[in-house]
Amino acid sequence: MQISFDSVTADYQIGPIRSPRVLDSIDLLLPAGSFTAVIGHTGSGKSSLLKAMNGLIIPYDGKVTIGQTTIKAGKNKKALRAIRQKVGMVFQFPESQLFAETVEKDICFGPLNFGVSLVEAKSIARVVLKQVGLEPSILSKSPLSLSGGQKRRVAIAGILAMQPDILVLDEPGAGLDPIGKREILQMITAWHKEKKLTTVIVTHDMDDVALYADDVVVMEHGQVVKHDKVRSFFTDVNQLNEWHVDVPQARSLQLQIEQETGIKLPGVCLTLPELADALIEVGIV
Ligand SMILES: Nc1ncnc2c1ncn2[C@@H]1O[C@H](COP(=O)(O)OP(=O)(O)OP(=O)(O)O)[C@@H](O)[C@H]1O
Ligand SMILES: [Mg+2]
Asked: Does residue 234 contact residue 210 with C-beta atoms inside 8 Å?
């Protein structure tokens, strides 16, 4: 399912006061089945962009279209219900998404809300719990009693239980240990491929962008300043500094080696195995 933004401008309304434009004239098309990483400096509008995909922020100008459903200024009740079912959103701190007394009730909440029977919801809960790598014994526990990584997995399970067409995850690996983070991102990639989901993640880690995403969107001051294929994006690294964007580890090593040896390696190396192959090809190792 495709996500499209047409001249979207939006802000947060706090009582009578409007915050400055947090999304400013955004045109963006994320094709069905794409995997996009949204990057950019803190406060640039990444989380806000994702919230607009889920109808949590409504444009006051322009429109957001998800599949056949459009959200724009005015009444959106029916569209919002449709969009929330299609777009599974995991927030920046998904732990705060958990609210029920038990893990099972938490995961069942979404499916029940969209008309699934209790028996069926419980069965879905078991399936998705396994998909996020948790044991069924956790179902009767309080979400509050879980570790940070377990809470993150339960929050993701709750979203998967809704069987969304689009998965939108705001910094899904933040604050987790490296292994936990890798497991979560590998799970997301596997679902993305298996279910042909349109997937969007926010991340500050350029190695995640290099390893998992196909496309990259750079946000700055509420605007999309770049939308590109990942490999092409990291080809010319000089421009990245101005957006406060790092370079993936392998690409950074490649540039250092090229500078020190004077030898240009073939291609743009985004991962360490790619770098190793390039070094072998030119005979450096
Ligand atoms: N609930 C809110 N009410 C008012 N203003 C907000 C709210 N949430 C965010 N903003 C403002 O919107 C702008 C963009 O914030 P957003 O959270 O989208 O940035 P971000 O790129 O996700 O940053 P980070 O990398 O720190 O998560 C900021 O100026 C922020 O102060
Ligand atoms: Mg954010």
From this structure: yes
Ligand 1 pocket, mutate which of 8, 14, 44 (most atoms under 8 A from CB): 44
Which tokens hold the place of 59?
A: 């444009």
Listed residue (58, 55, 54) closest to 23, CA to CA:
58
Pocket residue to mutate for ligand 1, from 19, 24, 42, most atoms within 8 A of Cβ:
19
Q: Which domains does the chain have, with CATH numbers?
A: 3-247 (3.40.50.300), 248-285 (no CATH)
Cβ neighbours, 10 Å, residue 164: 22
Using one digit for the tens of pLDDT, what is the confidence trace for 136-169? 999 999 998 998 888 889 999 999 999 999 999 9
What pLDDT is recorded for position 103? 95
Of 185, 192, 126, nearest in space to 165 by CA = 192
State in Å, rounded, how far the first CA of the chain is from the last one: 45
